[in-house]
Design a protein that fits this description.
Strand content: 15-25%
Distance between the termini: 15 Å
Number of strands: 13
Number of domains: 2
Structural class: alpha+beta
Order of helices and strands: HEEEEEHEHHHEEEHHHHHEEHEE
CATH class of the largest domain: Alpha Beta
Shape: globular
Largest sheet: 6 strands, mixed
Number of helices: 11
Bound molecules: alpha-D-galactopyranose
Length: about 400
């Protein structure tokens, strides 16, 4: 059954009324990794896989939330969200987080019934949690006519994750989920939240994700640690170069090069990666507008090297999948995508070679890691929207 029909029919069967239904997409990120929380550019695109959320106010002082794919259900009791953290059903915390942020802004949302499902793999680095938060925040804004724009909604969803769920993620994922557009990537300045739509004309090349199928335990702690290391880089530059420096990506590479002997070597490597990546994004968006896909692919590959050697957020499974396709004449570029330590690689592969490429890497990956990588071929899509039901 189609996913929209499924969430609607489950909702009607359980609650006896028609809901409103909202879709919010996951994202890929072409280039610009770990630059969002450093005030830099990113170049993501919303994709044709996402979360579908059916919702309506409940008539009781409790609401029931159902996660179809996860076979989970919880009760939302009254509107005291702080007391309702769910250690087991972590997905519910993304929804509570959104309600808590609305409350902070003076919007008290009544109890709600919800059924949701998705066709985004969970934990694969395609932003299923940001899509869930975005679908919910967008839906509430529509149902209750709250008047927030998509920038405000993105900040709300990010704060929900930062403050309620406790993950210090940047803004890229939810911003893309709310603002994506079919046929385009977003060139987003994460410092100002200004963005442009950049046409994504890939000709015969396809965006292909290979999922390592692993998510190493390090993910959240290493992410927060990288953020802290970047912040100590900023503190150093503020002390020695410019006390008003707004973010790490505003520092020129020459400051870093002049500081090698005075900076902690780990902080140096983290800053080097971020500043080089920031330059690469600008070169990559120029390559895209010049339709120079070969140059674009080479930059993606350089990003992987930086993430692996300087930022140190890759892992053997990601490196293996990237190495397996590097240098192949039908592959423009390949790199790990997202926070790191698992999840997917993103590849630009000629349409005629996708199947053969997948077969090749499947057998070698299985020999080495004893598991099969999943393949997702994705296309760009619009950001969050209400669906007619
Ligand atoms: C995760 C975070 C994003 C971003 C990426 C790395 O996906 O949620 O905010 O920092 O990692 O680019």
């Amino acid at each position: 059954m189609n996913i929209v029909k499924e969430v609607v029919s489950k909702f009607v069967a359980r609650f006896g009324e028609m809901p409103r239904v909202f879709r919010a997409p996951g994202r890929v990120n072409l280039i610009g990794e770990h630059t969002d929380y450093n005030g830099g550019w990113v170049l993501p695109a919303a994709i044709d896989k996402g979360i579908y959320l059916a919702c309506a106010p409940s008539e009781n002082n409790f609401g029931t939330w159902v996660a179809l794919d996860l076979c989970g259900a919880i009760q939302m009791v009254g509107t005291d969200f702080q007391g309702q953290k769910q250690p087991e059903q972590t997905w519910a915390n993304y929804l509570f987080g959104v309600l808590a942020q609305y409350a902070k802004r003076g919007f008290m949302i009544p109890t709600l019934n919800i059924v949701f499902a998705g066709n985004l793999p969970i934990g694969a680095g395609m932003s299923s949690s940001a899509a869930l938060g975005a679908a919910f925040a967008f839906g509430l804004n529509e149902i209750f006519h709250l008047g927030l724009n998509t920038k405000e909604l993105a900040l709300l969803v990010q704060q929900a994750e930062n403050e309620y769920v406790g993950i210090k993620c940047g803004i890229m994922d939810m911003f893309t989920s709310l603002n994506g557009k079919t046929g385009y990537a977003l060139k987003l300045d994460c410092q100002t939240l200004d963005f442009q739509y950049v046409p994504l004309e890939l000709g015969a090349f396809r965006i292909v994700l290979f999922n390592t199928g692993v998510k190493h335990a390090l993910v959240d702690s290493a992410y927060n640690e990288r953020r802290a290391q970047c912040e100590s880089g900023v503190a150093f530059f503020r002390k020695h170069f410019d006390s008003e420096l707004p973010s790490l990506t505003a520092a020129p590479l020459s400051w870093l090069q002049a500081s090698r002997s005075r900076l902690d070597p780990v902080v140096y490597r983290r800053c080097q990666y971020v500043l080089e990546e920031h330059l690469r994004i600008q070169a990559a968006s120029k390559a895209l507008s010049d339709n120079d896909l070969q140059a674009f692919g080479r930059l993606m590959t350089a990003t992987h090297q930086g993430l692996r050697d300087l930022y140190e957020v890759s892992c053997p499974e990601l490196d293996f999948l990237v190495d397996a396709v590097w240098g192949h004449p039908h592959v423009l570029g390949a790199r790990m995508m997202g926070g790191g330590f698992g999840g997917c690689t993103i590849n630009l592969i000629h349409q005629d070679y996708v199947d053969a490429c997948y077969q090749d890497i499947t057998s070698s990956y299985a020999r080495r890691f004893n598991r099969t990588p999943e393949l997702y071929e994705v296309v760009t899509a619009n950001g969050a929207e209400e669906l007619a039901v």
